[in-house]
């Protein structure tokens, strides 16, 4: 598991922590960065090549150590959550969970504490691409910040089994949304920008369905909306489909607002980006478990890009199966 993958997993963990705690969504602090910015490329060049980071020697420099701020003590609850996306209690609890996997970095007298390592990583998730600014925020070098984001993301991502899982009792809850029968889940895709890598169905669902939008192909286990509904039953089917599936779109929206790092360009390797996504999902579920109120993001989140519509013209059997469902449940 590399750094980008760890950061992805870690932000997913944090997202779920926030959801569990019902944390308010707060606005991000920075404007949307230019995706073609030279400064962005320079900042993430360090992360993208961990071998260069590990071999870098700073022994010839005169080191100036900055006094690190105790943000738990100096910031009030709202300002702390704005900057780090989790509240103080959730941050302290998370620190206890990942503490065995954290090492103190730096020299003996100026080591970076586990708390400051966690806060630096949370700050990176909240700002998206401004790694150099994050390093200054905590008072460490850019090289140290790269290592810390990698290590803490790995540590958070290891919590995914605890905070990211599929519910097994959702059929009735989905039915209660818009009376759509036998639904086990909803599918959606969200575009997470990453640095391009250097080289570039099966399953048993019984008589239950997943719901996906028109970008997905129509399958025996995956129902999509009709592009041109004509009858009253078809119209009711589409309305119920959209209302029932909307939960997954809302989930992605809250996740990206809570941790803008997954809404902006991740200039990391493919494996490291995966880890970051899982980590933020874990954190998001932690927020949910603590019922943390969502606080507005500090930066502008880009709009989701439209996906092309799948061509289902040749799926005769699946089209007939969908038609049978409409006749049985929605033509009444």
TrEMBL record:
One of its GO terms (molecular function) is hydrolase activity. One of its GO terms (cellular component) is nucleus. Keywords: Hydrolase, Metal-binding, Nuclease, Nucleus. It is found in: Nucleus. Its cofactor is a divalent metal cation. The keyword Nucleus applies. Transmembrane segments: none annotated. The keyword Nucleus applies. Residues 206-285 form the DDE Tnp4 domain. Its main location: nucleus. Belongs to the HARBI1 family. PANTHER family: DDE TNP4 DOMAIN-CONTAINING PROTEIN-RELATED, PTHR22930. This is DDE Tnp4 domain-containing protein. It comes from Operophtera brumata. The lineage of its organism: Eukaryota, Metazoa, Ecdysozoa, Arthropoda, Hexapoda.
């Amino acid at each position: 598991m590399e750094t980008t993958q760890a950061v992805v997993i870690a932000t997913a963990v944090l997202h779920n922590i926030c959801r569990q705690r019902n944390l308010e969504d707060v606005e991000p602090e920075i404007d949307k960065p230019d995706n073609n910015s030279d400064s962005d490329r320079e900042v993430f060049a360090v992360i993208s090549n961990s071998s260069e980071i590990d071999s870098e020697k700073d022994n010839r420099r005169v080191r100036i150590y900055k006094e690190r701020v105790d943000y738990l003590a100096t910031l009030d609850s709202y300002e702390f959550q704005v900057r780090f996306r989790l509240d103080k209690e959730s941050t302290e609890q998370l620190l206890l969970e990942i503490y065995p996997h954290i090492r103190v970095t730096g020299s003996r007298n100026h080591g970076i504490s586990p708390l400051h390592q966690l806060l630096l990583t949370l700050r990176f998730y909240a700002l998206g691409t401004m790694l150099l600014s994050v390093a200054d925020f905590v008072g460490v070098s850019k090289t140290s910040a790269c290592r810390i984001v990698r290590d803490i993301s790995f540590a958070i991502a290891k919590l995914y089994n605890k905070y990211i899982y599929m519910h097994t009792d959702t059929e009735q809850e989905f039915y209660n949304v818009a009376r759509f029968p036998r639904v086990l889940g909803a599918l959606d895709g969200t575009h997470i920008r990453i640095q391009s890598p250097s080289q570039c169905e099966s399953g048993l669902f019984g008589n239950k369905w997943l719901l996906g939008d028109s970008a997905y192909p129509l399958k025996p286990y995956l129902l999509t909306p009709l592009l041109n509904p004509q009858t009253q039953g078809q119209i009711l089917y589409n309305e119920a489909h959209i209302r029932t599936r909307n939960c997954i779109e809302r989930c992605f929206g809250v996740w990206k607002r809570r941790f803008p790092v997954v809404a902006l360009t991740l200039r990391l390797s493919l494996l490291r980006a995966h880890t970051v996504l899982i980590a933020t999902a874990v954190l998001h579920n932690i927020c949910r478990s603590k019922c943390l109120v969502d606080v507005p993001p500090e930066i502008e989140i880009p709009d989701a890009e439209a996906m092309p519509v799948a061509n289902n013209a040749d799926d005769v059997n699946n089209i007939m199966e969908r038609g049978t469902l409409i006749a049985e449940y929605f033509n009444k």
